[in-house]
Design a protein that fits this description.
Blueprint: H1 20-51, E1 60-64, H2 70-79, H3 86-96, E2 106-110, H4 116-124, E3 130-134, H5 141-150, E4 173-177, H6 182-201, H7 213-226, H8 233-245, H9 253-261, H10 273-277, H11 300-307, E5 316-319, E6 325-328, H12 331-346, H13 394-399, E7 443-445, H14 451-457, H15 459-464, E8 472-475, E9 478-481
Parallel strand pairs: 7-8
Antiparallel strand pairs: 1-2, 3-4, 5-6, 8-9
Helix pairs in contact: 2-3, 6-11, 7-8, 7-11, 8-11
Length: 490
């Protein structure tokens, strides 16, 4: 019997353990891989949300207040329905802050469907809403302040007119953001006007008759009010400078209006001979030289025209009937130009509401409002240097219709001679359309008072005079239409 051999198991080899460092590194690698996968998924989700179209259905304006933190701004935009997830925008702003990008306060308009990327780009670059406020050339400080104080975007108290001289505010467009105060705008406009005057005064010709920047501002304001034609400003400035050099009075109608109503704006009636004869500090028909201050805020073009006037010896100008002016060196030439203007009036080219003759009481009309300045008794002009003042200043009355703000329909007196004035006459309106010529209805002369009488007096004449429907017969000098018979309805 064979003896059973017992199988001896193979010896167990002991496992060799990895070093501790290797095990730690392996664990960290796995953990890092897991973290990277999670972060990648999170970044993928965030980028998808960051670049996807936003929830806004319509454009919306949001004001982000000063001092708001990144988290507060993100939450505000989510609450206002601009973005879907404040955490995404907050995280994006945190990441991009490394490159200097940050959320800035201000008033922003977000377009419908804007993605968070668009929103962040607008806020980080400070693309806030801007507003414009324009003071046109020829406006007074009073008119400018009315616009500034009435602006609803500006903040702060209304600015008082006291302490703001006429012409001190630049005639320009100011661009500003929400949060700007009314006083800020006034200060900016005053600084801009000072800089403009400084710049232009530095270019003043050495032989200029003007002695100061104030005189430059005064004369430019008169030029501004005299013409609205850009190409004529230098010529108008030359006329006034020539008159100043010769000691002649300026005789500018806008100065009369300013002496009556000050900075209120537009005179609501025509000038009268009484207005011209009334002495005020601003009436350049009654005072020598320049008035004591500007009558409006001139634009840059008017200021430049005074600094660089046209090379001209002209002393007069008058409307030429085409929208511009005719300039003249002598009184005779000027009177001829005035006569041409009268021809336009005779042909029916008048300003709206203007008559060919003034009412009988025109000369006695007093100013509607008391002048804003004192009216000292001023001496009569020196005959040696001042232009001849006619007994009836009808052309001066016509001059009152100036361009721009003070355009006034001024009638001309009947049968009065043309006289010399400096200012421009009113520009003619577009000629009215010619009437359509209508063919007159046939007129039949009847010698008798009635058709029966005609037949009685002359049967032959009765046969020739036919009273056809629609014709006209004259009876006792009066035209009598023969009515048309309406057909009877069946």
């Amino acid at each position: 019997m064979e003896q059973e051999i017992e199988r001896v198991p193979d010896p167990v080899r002991p496992k060799k353990r990895r070093p501790v460092l290797t095990r730690v590194i392996g664990s960290l690698t796995g953990l890092s891989l897991l973290v990277l996968i999670s972060v990648g998924a999170l970044l993928g989700y965030g980028w998808t949300q960051f670049t996807a179209s936003g929830p806004l259905a319509a454009n919306k304006v949001i004001n982000i207040p000063e001092g708001a933190t990144r988290t507060q701004i993100s939450r505000l935009l989510q609450d206002e329905g601009v973005i879907t997830d404040a955490r995404v925008l907050n995280g994006a702003s945190l990441v991009f802050s490394s490159w200097g990008a940050r959320l800035r306060p201000g008033e922003y308009e977000f377009i419908s469907g804007s993605s968070m990327a668009n929103v962040f780009d607008s806020i980080s670059k400070g693309r806030v809403l801007t507003y414009k406020l324009t003071v046109p050339e020829g406006w007074t400080s009073q008119m400018a302040l009315a616009r500034i104080n009435g602006n609803e975007v500006l903040t702060g108290d209304a600015v008082s007119l006291a302490g703001i001289a006429e012409g001190a505010l630049v005639a320009d467009t100011m661009v500003f953001r929400r949060g700007k105060t009314r006083q800020d705008i006034v200060d900016d406009m005053r600084d801009a006007q000072n800089h403009l005057l400084e710049d232009l005064w530095a270019r003043k010709p050495a032989d200029s008759i003007l002695k100061s920047k104030d005189e430059l501002l005064v004369l430019a304001s008169i030029v501004e009010k005299e013409t609205g034609q850009p190409e004529e400003r230098a010529q108008v400035a030359a006329v006034f400078l020539n008159r100043l050099k010769k000691g002649m009075r300026l005789q500018s109608d806008p100065t009369i209006i300013y002496g009556i109503i000050g900075g209120a704006g537009k005179l609501d009636r025509p000038l009268t001979k009484a207005d011209i004869a009334t002495a005020t500090l601003y009436n350049t028909y009654q005072i020598d030289g320049l008035p004591p201050g500007p009558i409006a805020s001139p634009g840059r073009a008017a200021l430049e025209a005074v600094i660089s006037p046209a090379q001209s010896n002209a002393l007069f100008f008058v409307a030429d009937g085409t929208g511009g002016h005719a300039f003249a060196e002598t009184l005779e030439q000027h009177n001829a130009n005035v006569q041409k203007w009268r021809e336009f009036q005779k042909n029916g080219i008048l300003l709206p509401g203007e008559d060919t003759a003034p009412p009988a009481e025109t000369a006695a009309v007093e100013p509607l409002a008391a002048p804003t300045v004192e009216q000292p008794a001023l001496p009569a002009p020196d005959a040696a240097v001042a232009p001849v003042t006619p007994a009836v200043d009808d052309t001066a009355v016509v001059e009152a219709a100036k361009t721009q703000e003070n355009l006034q329909p001024v009638p001309l007196p009947v049968e009065e001679p043309a006289v010399a004035t400096t200012g421009a006459l009113p520009k003619p309106a577009t000629p009215p359309p010619l009437p359509v010529e209508k063919k007159p209805k046939p007129v039949v002369e009847a010698k008798a008072e009635t058709p029966a009488a005609v037949a009685a007096e002359s049967p032959a004449l009765a046969e020739t005079v036919k009273f056809e429907p629609g014709s006209v017969v004259k009876i006792n000098g009066k035209a009598v239409p023969v009515p048309k018979l309406k057909p009877k309805k069946r």
